[in-house]
């Protein structure tokens, strides 16, 4: 159980600061299975989860949807046969907020 999974997302206002480079370096080290991608200039966290079939991939997707609703912070999700690609970033600031790292850690917990 990492410190991130103990935290709750905070309401992310449009003027909320993006994580600094130093915060990014510290936080990404707490979610070692996640990578950083930049798409259309927006920094995002991304991980691909592998499953035995589509039914298991979909079950994971539905659990993730419940988590997102509970935290009111929502991922990008690509669900395919045997894999789910999850992407976290904060729409309101067009970049990464601590919320995204919290949600990535909580996404990993869905596998437990
Ligand atoms: C309209 C806006 O996207 C929503 O109000 C909330 C809910 N979910 C959200 N999810 C994410 N990832 N970022 C947001 O800024 C966000 N804002």
UniProtKB/TrEMBL annotation:
What's the domain of life for this entry? Answer: Bacteria
Give the catalysed reaction(s), semicolon-separated: (4aS,6R)-4a-hydroxy-L-erythro-5,6,7,8-tetrahydrobiopterin = (6R)-L-erythro-6,7-dihydrobiopterin + H2O
Top enzyme class: lyase
User: What keywords are annotated for this sequence in UniProt?
Assistant: Lyase
Q: Which Pfam families match?
A: Pterin_4a
The EC number(s) attached to this protein equal 4.2.1.96
Q: Which CDD domains match?
A: PCD_DCoH_subfamily_a
Record family assignment: Belongs to the pterin-4-alpha-carbinolamine dehydratase family.
HAMAP family, per database record: Pterin_4_alpha
This one is known as Putative pterin-4-alpha-carbinolamine dehydratase
- Which source organism? Shewanella ulleungensis
